[in-house]
Design brief:
The complex is a heterodimer. Among the domains of chain A are: 240 residues, no CATH class; 48 residues, no CATH class. Helix content of chain A is 27%, strand content 15%. Chain B is an alpha+beta fold. Chain B has two domains: 141 residues, no CATH class; 53 residues, no CATH class. Chain B has ten helices and five strands, in the order ββαααββαααβαααα. In chain B, a hairpin with a 2-residue loop joins strand 1 and strand 2. Chain B is globular and about 75 Å long. In chain B, 26% of the residues are buried. Classes of the chains: A alpha+beta, B alpha+beta. Chains A and B meet through helix 14 of A and helix 3, helix 4, helix 7 and helix 8 of B.
Chain lengths: 541, 253
């Protein structure tokens, strides 16, 4: 089998691009998500074969100044994933279909009670398309302003191509659009500030997607292990403080954190270099969020911004509370971060390789400050509350509760719950005093095990608090707080600094800020597997 | 019929051990039993080095904080119950180790926490059990547990909303409040406010290892029903409610 030594690179030409690349970081800041149903297996496979040459792989792109050298950036990226029903529709052999894990076979709708998709998040409120037989997801990412039309043109080509295979391959309609109309696709786009600059914000105003897992073999800058890898017992602001995660946590066919190959479908060639994609369309109730913050922060020392920061564990500008507890420090970091980003982009646009190298080093140094921390200096949560969003979804070394050496490794209970996050915001919030409208986040999560990684974090860490000794309290921002007056109250304890003599601040009556509007579980095969599926050459015997 | 009751999950394992191994494992269990004088244990283990530092190994277990009750018992071949003359006498080739645990969360969460968090401790507890694959990698370890698990046919919890942590925090909260009521009887308004704030900030918890267990435990979370551990067991619970309501209709008629 393949070695997973960190020095041995992955076969990036065989892996679909979005697994390794965060496209929005590469200036692909608009997206379309298109769903298909396959009623004729042969036609479905022909459609797939036609698409293959356009599928974007994880192979590194040459920067524009060196296009001659190899793999230029495509104008628009394309990637493909299948539901279990989709693989069945494409006539994958039964013996292979039976080897997929139970939660993937069941699909997201049937797992709703595990995921807490109840009340307004229940599937009957989802965009109608997600209740249809979804088989195939194609997603396209393209440039932002002023070149959004490029994505439109590519999408048009895709529509024409798909027509050749109808009937037999049908594009599914029923994505809710802004005017309430049912559309043939879901769109996504980064948000822009008043000056028309691209931001990393989502609709609540938080900078998103700062921290992503770092794993072996991707060829990424080894310094990015800081904050992205797994914690060691060394200091979190050094390279020694982190180790890359095993590849098998994010890609099938490689050793994982339990020293074995992940549970995977047969034959091995179908699985290797593939992974699972959890797709969620999450609506954001901006009106409820703003009014809760306004009302509650009247009594909170530090005011509205500080309360917003306590919910998430990061200031809305991205600075972590664990290392930047005051708004002044946070603003300083955010300003330096922005400056470094602008310089880097300018050097890139000027094709000035020397300046680019310098600027990207400065950028990497500032970025480090955003991610190089743990909670050992803040066990009680006086800076970052124990129940804050980022501390829940990635507790770093926090589950040892300061009892150093309790577990075989500091991150023993965390390292197998990490999630690669992709996706973009969708829609525009036109009235910040209202909850309705079409705006939220398209969240795409890539994991080797949907159950162990995504479902566990969703259920145990976001919709429950026992692992943090917080009883049934949920994630303040993403928890499925009940709107039933007899249900469990939406609560959060914002701990005070021990010894300060101040009481903790207790938030009660937190409404549900985020509602599920659609989603499904997909398998993202390797290029090899896509070819095998398209040619009906999958043989598990 | 379920291994789940409220927030608790029941797991019973019966695993064979070579007869000649019994006395050594008994010594190990005796050393691990917290009711033995801790001074002696500490004195003893410190001299043997970290590999035998049983107290440190229990540290991981305590930190997991998801177990209501767990017990390891070695059953010698002659100790199997013989209930009457109609039951034939048996002579098992092995002694057996019974492991009994009631914990919070799912089977996988529990088993994986042990395998990832305290693999050495686990290997020590199942030392020389027949077929023990070691606790890492996880696949063979999962298979071993499943193979030797005895299903729970009837399982009841009087406090279905209480996880082990809920019990710890509720007990502390009760004691602290009762104490505060006593202390605050004669306080003036200012003093009351200061002391009440102090109480609240103590109740928020502080996992600082220098604090005692009492001072550490957070008690401000709320207690409510468990998140769903298994879709199948939820379906069973619903079916039971339905059966009960049909029976009630019958009774009323």
């Amino acid at each position: 089998m393949m070695s997973t030594d960190p020095d041995i690179p992955l076969d990036l030409h065989d892996i679909q691009g979005n697994i390794i690349k965060a496209y929005n970081r590469e200036d692909y800041v608009t997206a379309r998500y298109v769903l298909y149903q396959v009623t004729d297996g042969a036609k479905g496979r022909e459609f797939l074969a036609e698409l293959l040459p356009y599928v974007t792989t994880a192979a590194p792109w040459s920067r524009e100044s060196a296009v001659r050298a190899g793999n230029p950036k495509p104008p628009v990226t394309l990637n493909i994933a299948f539901t279990h029903q989709g693989l069945e529709a494409l006539e994958l052999p039964a013996a292979s279909l039976l080897t997929f894990p139970q939660e993937f076979v069941s699909g997201m709708v049937k797992r709703r009670e595990i995921l807490g998709d109840d009340g307004k998040s229940a599937p009957e409120h989802w965009d109608p398309v997600w209740l249809k037989p979804v088989h195939l997801l194609l997603w396209l990412n393209g440039p932002g302003r002023p070149n959004e039309h490029v994505l439109d043109e590519y999408h048009g080509m895709l529509v024409e191509l798909a027509k050749k295979f109808a009937p037999g391959v049908e594009c599914l309609s029923g994505h809710r659009g802004e005017d309430g109309a049912e559309r043939d696709y879901q769109s996504g786009s980064a948000l822009y500030d008043e000056d028309g600059n691209i931001t990393a914000k989502e609709h609540f105003g938080y900078s998103d997607g700062i921290s992503n897992p770092f794993f072996k073999g991707t060829g990424a800058n080894p310094n990015n292990v800081i904050g992205g890898g797994k914690v060691t017992r060394e200091s979190p602001d050094t390279v020694e403080g982190w180790e890359p995660l095993e590849t098998g946590e994010f890609l099938l066919g490689y050793k994982d954190e339990a020293f074995e190959y992940p549970e995977a479908p047969l034959p091995p060639l179908l699985a290797r270099n593939g992974t699972y994609l959890v797709f969620r369309k999450l609506h954001e109730n901006v009106g409820s969020f703003e009014s809760y913050l306004d009302e509650t922060s009247k009594h909170f020392e530090g005011g509205k911004e500080a309360l917003a920061a306590k919910f998430v564990g990061r200031w809305r500008n991205g600075a972590p509370l664990a290392t930047h507890p005051t708004e002044e420090e946070a603003n300083g970091l955010a300003a330096r971060w922005n400056q470094a980003y602008v310089s880097m982009k300018k050097a890139e646009a000027d094709h000035d390789d020397g300046a680019y190298a310098t600027a990207s080093n400065v950028y990497a140094d500032v970025r480090k400050e955003l991610v190089a921390f743990d909670y050992d200096q803040d066990l009680a949560g006086g800076r970052c509350p124990v129940g804050a969003h980022v501390r829940r979804v990635n507790p770093r070394g926090g589950l040892e509760f300061g009892r150093s050496g309790a577990f075989a490794s500091r991150g023993a209970l965390t390292n197998r719950r990490r999630i690669l996050r992709r996706g973009l915001p969708y829609g525009i919030c036109r009235d910040r005093s209202r909850d309705d409208g079409e705006h939220g986040n398209i969240v795409m999560m890539l994991v080797a095990s949907i159950r162990r990684q995504f479902e566990f974090v969703q259920q145990q860490w976001m919709n429950y608090g026992n692992d943090f000794k917080l009883g049934n309290d949920k994630d303040p921002l993403l928890g499925n707080h009940s709107d039933d007056p007899d249900g469990i109250d939406g609560r959060m304890t914002i701990e005070s600094t021990p010894g300060s003599g101040k009481p903790p601040f207790l938030c009660a009556g937190i409404p549900r800020f985020v509602e599920t509007r659609g989603g499904a579980y997909f398998f993202v095969p390797s290029m090899t597997a896509l070819r095998m599926i398209s040619k009906a050459l999958v043989d598990p015997t | 019929m379920s291994n789940i009751a409220g927030k608790a999950f029941a797991m019973n394992l019966i695993t064979p051990i070579e007869r000649k191994q019994v006395k050594w494992n008994k010594v190990a269990f005796w050393l691990l039993t917290p009711s033995k004088p801790r001074n002696f244990l500490n004195w003893f283990t410190k001299r043997l080095g970290p590999r035998f530092d049983f107290a440190a190994k229990l540290n991981g277990l305590i930190t997991l904080s998801m177990i209501h009750y767990a017990r390891w018992v070695i059953v010698k071949p002659e100790e199997w119950p013989h209930l009457g003359t109609e039951q034939p006498r048996e002579d098992p080739a092995y002694a057996y180790q019974l492991f009994f645990s009631n914990f919070n969360g799912s089977w996988a969460q529990y088993v994986d926490s042990f395998s990832a968090g305290i693999p050495e401790g686990l290997d020590g507890l199942w030392n020389k059990n027949v077929g023990w694959p070691t606790s890492v990698p996880q696949g063979p370890f999962h298979d071993y547990v499943r193979h030797n698990e005895v299903w729970t046919n009837y399982y009841y919890s009087a406090y279905p909303m209480a996880a082990s942590n809920d019990i710890k925090s509720s007990k502390r909260l009760r004691n602290e409040l009762l104490d505060f009521i006593d202390r605050s009887e004669k306080m003036g308004a200012k003093e009351f406010q200061r002391e009440y704030h102090k109480l609240l900030s103590s109740l928020q918890g502080n996992p600082n290892p220098d604090f005692t267990a009492e001072e550490k435990f957070p008690c401000l979370g709320q207690m409510a029903p468990t998140p769903i551990v298994s879709l199948a067991s939820v379906a069973v619970r619903r079916a039971r409610v339905e059966i009960r309501s049909v029976e009630e209709v019958h009774d009323a008629e």
